[in-house]
Design brief:
Length: 554
């Protein structure tokens, strides 16, 4: 096969991080990982090959575990009270390019002082040096804390020692599928979408990431997990107003956990065409600018309400934010359970809101153990308007202990620690949030049926303030509602809101399960910043009022 050059496992271990892998471009460093990329040739022979044929042989689990234990031994010998390492290798394919990434991150603790080191040279000597450097960093931080007279609460919530392995259930390995099949599946959906006249184009992409990750700690935890995540994504190019073309995302953002079966199952194409048909019906409305300002009732479809929850309440429940750790990074939270006037035990939000979280299949966040080695379990964050839990980790949970004690509850560890890559620092992440739908039959049309004058929106970009108490909302598609009926599509509509006004006094009704949509909550956390995201699934919602504003035209 033309230009097909594989790297052996020995070559991989000897040269990663210090030299080019055969056939790959120079690496980029992405969140601590060295990422190599190669574009597959477009020859007939190459297109009949699989992604696995263009990537180095996978590292056996045993070799990654051995490297992890080198770090643990080095940290223990240098005097760490606690240390852990996440080490892993990622393979990525989208049908045209193949990527290989690898790296590790090591935490060490002395007293209440932590330090973190990361690297991407996968050798025993390099990993041992990083582990020793992490302990030295923790010792320096401990001396500084002593000099300043600063003392933390309990340094870490105890968790059982765990060992074992877990893999994403996969029916069809995406790296064993011929590259041509990626394009065949994408083209079939694109051609079906283009049959609708006003769509100027469609763009489907199939992309998967496979990661082998090992977590080991000085407590004795050693777990190996194999993640396969990705799936199909489809955007359509539509002319909605004044011949202005926009790209409208159709499929669920963020992908799912699973293999190539996510792309070949019939419901993907059916879902895409169902949403395209709905979008084509909205396109039949006349278009106009809305030059008025003021307060209007608003119905958000499931995806827009997911975006609102994801960019506000989702991060307001982040234990790293409420304990103040993110004050100089992503920001704080309007929920202040540790303030002298603590959050009351009930009534923070609308009684219509019940929100749960999990890291179960088929979510893109699915794991068995989190990056603290804690078993991932479901949790209830909000129950009928009352905040009942936060996104906690072993590190952040001790700070919230007084809040749990006040409610006569034990501190929970639901497995919400997440490092975006093996070389990233683990931080709190909410997992997959689920907003409970109405048990009564309530469609999107039912929600705006009694509306005298207001708006219905499909999808939204939400930009919150630093403490998440307010923000700006820009609908992807906005329809003006008059006397319970859509009358026009509105161009370039902007809205501002305060979070509690929307989610407490302003929330009037929720749709049923048929109105559900999913969006991603995305933020940057830590110093230096690292991107964190998690999916939110929610029904459509009716809010009593939102401020429609006018921004200066660019």
């Amino acid at each position: 096969m033309q230009n097909l050059q594989k790297s052996s496992r020995r070559h991989f271990l000897q040269h990663t991080g210090v030299a080019l892998l055969a056939g790959f471009a120079a690496p980029r460093i992405i969140q601590g990982m060295a990422v190599y990329e190669r574009r597959m040739p477009s020859t007939t022979a190459a297109r009949r090959s699989t992604a696995a044929a263009w990537l180095p042989d996978p590292l056996p689990d045993a070799e990654l575990r051995a490297l992890a234990l080198v770090a643990i031994d080095a940290a223990r010998e240098r005097g760490a009270e606690f240390a852990d390492i996440r080490i892993g290798v990622q393979r990525i394919c989208d049908g045209t390019t193949a990527k290989l990434g690898f790296g590790y991150g090591i935490r060490a603790r002395l007293g209440s002082a932590w330090a973190f080191e990361h690297g991407n040279v996968m050798s025993r000597d390099a990993i041992a040096r990083s582990a020793r450097a992490a302990v030295v960093g923790a010792r320096i931080a401990a001396d500084v804390n002593t000099t300043l007279g600063w003392h933390a609460p309990e340094v870490s919530t105890p968790a059982p020692v765990v060992t074992g392995a877990w893999s994403t259930p996969v029916e069809i390995d995406p790296f064993s599928v011929p590259l041509d099949e990626y394009q065949v599946v994408a083209n079939r959906v694109d051609e079906a979408v283009r049959e609708y006249g006003f769509f100027r184009g469609a763009q489907s992409q199939l992309i998967w990431t496979h990661e082998l990750r090992v977590l080991a700690s000085t407590e004795g935890t050693v777990v190996t997990q194999s993640f396969t995540r990705g799936g199909p994504k489809t955007n359509v190019q539509a002319s909605l107003w004044h011949n202005q073309e926009i790209w409208v995302p159709i499929t669920m953002p963020g992908g799912q956990s699973g293999g190539f079966e996510l792309a070949v199952r019939p419901d993907w194409e059916q879902r895409v065409l169902q949403q395209v048909e709905e979008l084509s019906r909205w396109r039949e409305l006349p278009t106009k600018r809305f030059d008025d300002v003021g307060r209007f009732p608003l119905v958000l479809d499931g995806r827009a309400f997911s975006a609102l929850i994801g960019q506000t309440l989702n991060f307001a429940l982040d234990g790293d934010r409420v304990m103040g750790r993110e004050a100089d990074a992503s920001g704080l939270s309007f929920l202040r359970p540790l303030a002298p006037a603590s959050v009351p035990s009930s009534g923070e939000l609308s009684p219509l809101l019940t929100i749960t979280s999990d890291r179960a299949m088929p979510s893109s966040t699915a794991v068995r153990w989190d990056d603290d080695g804690v078993v991932a379990t479901p949790s209830t964050l909000v129950e009928r308007g009352a905040v009942t839990d936060f996104h906690t980790t072993r590190d952040s949970a001790p700070w919230l202990a007084p809040w749990y004690q006040q409610r006569r509850r034990t501190t929970t560890l639901p497995g919400r620690s997440m490092a975006p890559t093996p070389a990233s620092l683990p931080l709190a992440n909410g997992g997959h949030l689920h907003v409970a739908s109405s048990t009564s039959r309530i469609t999107e049309a039912d929600l705006y049926r009694e509306m005298t004058h207001g708006f219905f929106i499909k999808g939204a970009e939400v930009t919150p303030s630093t403490n998440l108490s307010a923000g700006m909302l820009r609908p992807l598609i906005a329809a003006e509602i008059v006397q319970g009926k859509p009358v026009a599509l509105i161009e370039d509509l902007w809205m501002s809101f305060t979070t509690l006004a929307m989610l407490k006094t302003g929330l009037a009704a929720l749709g049923d399960a048929t109105t559900q949509g999913t969006d991603l909550g995305t933020t940057s956390k830590g110093m230096p910043w690292q991107e964190m995201s998690n999916p939110i699934t929610a029904p459509a919602a009716l809010c009593k009022q939102i401020d429609v504003i006018q921004l200066p035209k660019s």
